[in-house]
């Protein structure tokens, strides 16, 4: 994917009337639509009276609809602060992933946030986690289909190549009112944040040798990018490494004492 004239090449473009002021994007904010279909989000964002919008809607089947050029403000983040920057709408690109969010399991099936009963077989799988914002006990969070996440990652990569993006955050973590729960525990936030560390093509960017922490109890360092390569060292949770480059799902890192390859999924941006 590629960004041209502030639009994602190949995506449908339907302009939302909500927003439009000029911005210089430096953050990506991740959301879920709290719905079942991309069309309902598209309809909402095209309605002026809704007073909401986002730059991208990413459907479960990977189809992407853009609703605002990336250099124009959309209304998705509400009252917000991230790394000392207030009002993220003025500084961020909003990604909306089609996903219903939290479900409560009952004897009669799943109940969604709107009080409707939904069949379990509608979903591939769930992450089970608490969310005190919405109530007590455990909630079932439908997983995001791989095709949808891959499309989101490709779009994020293209945007990172086109703009100076400094951070990727969830709506939940920036919402100053403490109401928001999206994109929730089923969303692979780390996979997106890792794009900033090692995914850039331009080696002259400051993203070279970006610091990460090991986020697993023990992590093998290998001589090359894959499990066929021998283990040359061991790292443990919290160890600091510096990403040099990536290949597939592997990252070449500098660590205290050497250099080698680790599985990217166990690295967290420091
Ligand atoms: Zn949101």
Structure description:
Strands 3-7-6-11-5-17 form a 6-stranded mixed β-sheet, with helices on both faces. It folds into 3 domains: 3-99 and 144-198, 3-Layer(aba) Sandwich (Lysozyme-like); 104-142, no CATH class; 210-269, Roll (SH3 type barrels), CATH 2.30.30. Helix 2 (146-162) runs parallel beside helix 4 (189-198). The protein has 270 residues and is α+β, with helices and mostly antiparallel strands. 39% of the residues are buried. The radius of gyration is 19 Å and the shape is globular. The longest helix has 17 residues, at 146-162. It is built from 4 helices and 24 strands. Mean pLDDT is 92; it is low at 198-207.
Quick overview of this protein structure:
By secondary structure, the protein is of the alpha+beta class. Helices cover 15% and strands 36% of the residues.
Topology record:
Elements: E1 3-4, E2 7-8, E3 12-13, E4 19-22, E5 27-32, H1 38-46, E6 56-58, E7 64-66, E8 72-74, E9 81-82, E10 85-86, E11 92-97, E12 104-106, E13 109-111, E14 117-118, E15 126-130, E16 138-142, H2 146-162, E17 167-170, H3 171-174, H4 189-198, E18 210-214, E19 218-222, E20 231-236, E21 240-247, E22 250-255, E23 258-263, E24 267-269
Parallel strand pairs: 3-7, 5-11, 5-17, 6-11
Antiparallel strand pairs: 1-2, 4-8, 6-7, 9-10, 12-13, 13-14, 15-16, 18-21, 18-24, 19-20, 21-22, 22-23
Helix pairs in contact: 2-4
This protein binds zinc ion.
Residues 31, 171, 180, 182 line the site of zinc ion.
């Amino acid at each position: 994917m590629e960004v041209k004239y502030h639009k994602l090449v190949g995506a449908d473009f339907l302009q939302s009337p909500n927003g439009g002021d000029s911005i210089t994007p430096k953050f990506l904010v991740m959301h879920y639509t709290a719905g079942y279909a991309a069309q309902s989000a598209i309809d909402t964002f095209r309605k002026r009276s809704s007073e909401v919008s986002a730059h991208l809607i990413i459907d479960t089947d990977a189809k992407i609809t853009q609703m605002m050029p990336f250099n124009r403000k959309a209304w998705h983040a509400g009252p917000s602060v991230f790394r000392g920057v207030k009002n993220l709408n003025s500084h961020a690109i909003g990604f909306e992933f089609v996903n219903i969010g939290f479900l409560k399991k009952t004897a009669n099936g799943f109940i969604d946030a709107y009080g409707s009963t939904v069949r379990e077989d509608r979903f591939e799988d769930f992450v089970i986690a608490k969310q005190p914002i919405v109530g007590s006990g455990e909630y079932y969070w439908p997983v995001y289909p791989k095709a949808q996440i891959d499309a989101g990652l490709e779009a994020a990569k293209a945007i990172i190549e086109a703009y100076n993006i400094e951070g990727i955050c969830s709506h939940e973590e920036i919402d100053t009112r403490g109401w928001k729960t999206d994109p929730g525990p089923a969303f692979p936030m780390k996979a997106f944040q890792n794009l900033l560390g090692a995914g850039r093509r331009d080696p002259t960017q400051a993203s070279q040798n970006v610091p990460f922490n090991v986020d697993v109890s023990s992590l093998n360092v290998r001589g090359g990018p894959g499990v066929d390569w021998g283990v040359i060292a061991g790292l443990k949770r919290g160890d600091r490494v510096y990403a040099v480059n990536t290949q597939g799902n592997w990252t070449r890192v500098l660590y205290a004492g050497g250099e080698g390859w680790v599985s990217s999924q166990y690295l967290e941006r420091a």
